[in-house]
Amino acid sequence: MVVVFKERNAGRVTILECVGRQTAGEGKEALNDRVQALLAEGRILLLLDLSQVSSIYSQDISVLVRGFVSTGRCGGKLKLLKLSPRVRQVFDATRLFNVLEAFDDESAAIASFE
After folding, report:
1. Overall pTM surpassing 0.90 (yes/no)
2. Could you say which of 17, 35, 84, 114 is the most buried, measured as most Cβ atoms within 10 Å of its Cβ?
3. Tens place of pLDDT for every residue, the chain, 114 residues?
4. What is the 3-state secondary structure (H, E, C) of the chain?
5. Hey, where are the domains in the chain?
């Protein structure tokens, strides 16, 4: 299933809600394309809400890292919100918490951009 995105803004922060199962192929490229489009629009403070993503595969981690690097090059930040237990396991196994910040509370996540 392709990931569906819902966007909303909280001040200067763009919250991108990802819904569905993040998988290799179309879903992976859809996420990358959307992040790159947001950066091209000058929306460089990105918060990916993964609360509706049931699972993520290790090969899809490259998309998140690529988004993190691209956002940083634009002078922005990419952070994660509300990881499911299964997604959190993948992040623990790959030690991505050393690179990407993840939050359980949306208000705290938004405040962290300042």
Report:
1. no
2. 35
3. 346 689 999 999 999 998 765 444 456 678 888 999 999 999 999 999 988 887 777 667 788 888 999 999 999 999 999 988 888 888 888 787 778 899 999 999 999 998
4. CCCEEEEEEECCEEEEEEEECCCCCHHHHHHHHHHHHHHHCCCCEEEEEEEEECCCCHHHHHHHHHHHHHHHHCCCEEEEECCCHHHHHHHHHHCHHHCCCEECCHHHHHHCCC
5. 4-111
